[in-house]
Each structure stands twice: as C-alpha cells, then as structure tokens.
Design brief:
The chain has about 325 residues and is α/β, with parallel strands linked by helices. It is built from 14 helices and eight strands. The strands form two sheets. The protein has a four-stranded parallel beta sheet with strand order 2-1-3-4. Strands 6-5-7-8 form a four-stranded parallel beta sheet.
C-alpha cells in the first residue's frame, strides 16, 4: 500500500511538472540582441528560442517552412521592427501567423523622439561630398549606385532600425520585454521584473564603461563598412566621417579609388572598420595606400565565436569597445 501511495505521488508530481513545463510561455526572438535581452528577462521562467542561427542576420534571412512552424508554435514573438523584419509583417498581413501569437515590436513601441531617421543619419555622408570638385562626381555616383544595388538604408522605412547598438535604448527594450511577459504570465511577474532590473544594471554599467573609455578617441575620424552605427556614434560622440559600401575590386575605377583616398587623407581618417566575418579588398587597399588601420567592428546581427546566451550582447559590445580603442588610439 505504501509502495502504491509513493508511486501514485511520484506520478502526480511528474504530471504536475510536465503540466507546468507545458504551461511555460514560449518566446521566439528574431536575432541575437533580442535573444540576449529576452533570455535575461525570462531566465528560468519562460522558454526562449532564437529564429536566426549561425552567420545569417536579418538582412540575409529567408523564411523557410521550419521557421514558420517555429513562429506559429510561439506564444510571443519579439522583434526589432522598423521594417527590419519585413517577412514578419507580411505574415501578419497575409494571415499566415496564428492570431493567438502575440508580437512585441520593440522599435515601433519606442518613443519616436529616441529614433534616428534615415535623413538625419545621411547628413554626415552628404556633408562629406560638399566642396568636392566636379571630377570627383563619378565617385559620388558610384557610391549611390552601390548603395542602391546592395540595398542598405533604402530597404527600410523612415527610421534607422539599428537601435540595439545603443545600450541605453537596449535598457528601454528590456523594460518592454519584461512588461509584456508580466502581462502574459502575472504569476511570474515578480521574477520577470527582478531579472529585468538585474540585467539592466549590467547594461547601465556597460554604458558607463563605454562612455568613459571612448572619451579619449572621440575626435579620431574613422570609416565603417556599413551605415549601422548611427545610434552608437551619437550616444558616445564618435566621429564616423564616412561609410564604405562593399564593392568588389572589379567594380572599382581608378578615379573612384583615388577620390576615396583623397577624402580619407583630407579627413585625417585613422581607421576603417569591417565586421570580423567580412572581407573587403577595397577597404584593405584604401587602408594600405592611406597608411591607416583596418579594425573589426560587429553589428551584432550575427554571433561571434562565443555562445548564444543572455551574455552575448554584453560580450560583443565590449569586443567592439576593445576594437575601437585598439584602432583609434
């Protein structure tokens, strides 16, 4: 009889455990920074799974049937929005996403005063062309043609979506994630709130480290490969004076190369920054001819060599700090 009671109790406990596990919220995030924030807030209280894996970021992502199943199996999808994930917007419009699945669009929920419009972000690059001689116009035309061909800012809407590269805006996103999870699982609200507060303390410390460490290189001009760092540069007062698009050597005319090199020398550029997994022979040629450094700066759209976890965002942002200091000092 005792054995029977013990066995029954064990079965009931197992059933309760399975039921509790099944009742856990299932959260799907679109890519790396959103995963780190969500995993930190949900730690031990909800299941969090990331949609994009490996070297695939939001610009290269192609929606597959397996992704569709994963998204429709979620209770909540968390994305950056601001037209960075147009496939998700299309799913909602076409009705291929279950109506029971909630979507938290972080960029759209932010106060628009905190966002940078593409017109504002492009002022620097427009200023770089002011005063150029007419013989340099072919370099400018090439820049615009390349910009359109590779589809950077013109693919998106009114606002620059790269909000995650600002740790202060990241804290706002973490608060929004916590609020939504609290609403969906009120019984776990204190845990979500505590996790969010603890994680935001780390992000606040990260912001302070970046602010203090980058003061000494604020006046050092540099170029980046893509126009992803407007929020970061604005937050920390960095002097990014130009953006290089990824141009194969075969497409680069001697006049275009000469014009870029002339601008780099006139602006006193110290370094050109590329993502670690990217090779750009144009940037390397300019760096060699201009006798400047090539650094590695991550957009955090894809993972580095470390694990994908709640610490990945902070780890990679500190990696960017190290890269900036090494190349700009």
């Amino acid at each position: 009889m005792n054995f029977f009671k013990i066995s029954l109790a064990t079965l009931l406990m197992a059933a309760f455990s399975l039921s509790a596990k099944a009742a856990e919220l299932k959260v799907v995030t679109t890519f790396l920074p959103v995963y780190s924030w969500s995993a930190a807030v949900a730690s031990g209280q909800a299941q969090v799974e990331n949609l994009m894996e490996g070297t695939v970021g939001p610009h290269e992502f192609q929606l597959a049937p397996s992704h569709l199943r994963k998204l429709n199996g979620a209770d909540l999808i968390i994305c950056i929005g601001l037209e960075l994930e147009p496939w998700l917007e299309a799913m909602i419009e076409k009705g291929t996403l279950k109506k029971s699945v909630q979507v938290l669009n972080l960029g759209e929920a932010l106060d628009k005063k905190l966002l940078i419009s593409y017109g504002e972000g492009e002022k620097a690059s427009e200023a770089a062309h002011e005063g150029e001689d007419s013989h340099d116009s072919d370099a400018e035309d090439h820049d615009h043609a390349e910009h359109a061909e590779h589809g950077h800012s013109h693919e998106h809407g009114q606002y620059d979506p790269h909000i995650w590269l600002d740790p202060v805006l990241a804290q706002e996103c973490v608060k929004m994630i916590s609020v939504r999870l609290e609403q969906m699982a009120p019984e776990k609200a204190p845990a979500f709130r505590k996790n969010a507060e603890q994680y935001n303390q780390k992000l606040s410390q990260l912001d302070q480290v970046l602010k203090e460490s980058l003061k000494e290189v604020q006046q050092k001009p540099f170029y980046t490969q893509h126009d992803a760092f407007s929020y970061f540069n604005k937050r920390y007062g960095l002097k990014c004076v130009g953006v290089l698009q990824k141009v194969p050597d075969s497409d680069v005319s001697p006049r275009h190369l000469s014009a870029l090199l002339k601008k780099i020398k006139e602006e006193g550029v110290v370094a050109i920054f590329l993502p670690s997994k990217s090779a750009d022979r144009l940037a390397e040629r300019l760096a060699q001819d201009g006798k400047i450094k090539v650094g590695r700066l991550e957009t955090l759209e894809t993972l580095d060599d470390g694990p994908l976890n709640a610490d990945a965002y902070e780890r990679m942002m500190k990696g960017n700090l190290k890269a900036l200091l090494e190349s700009l000092k």
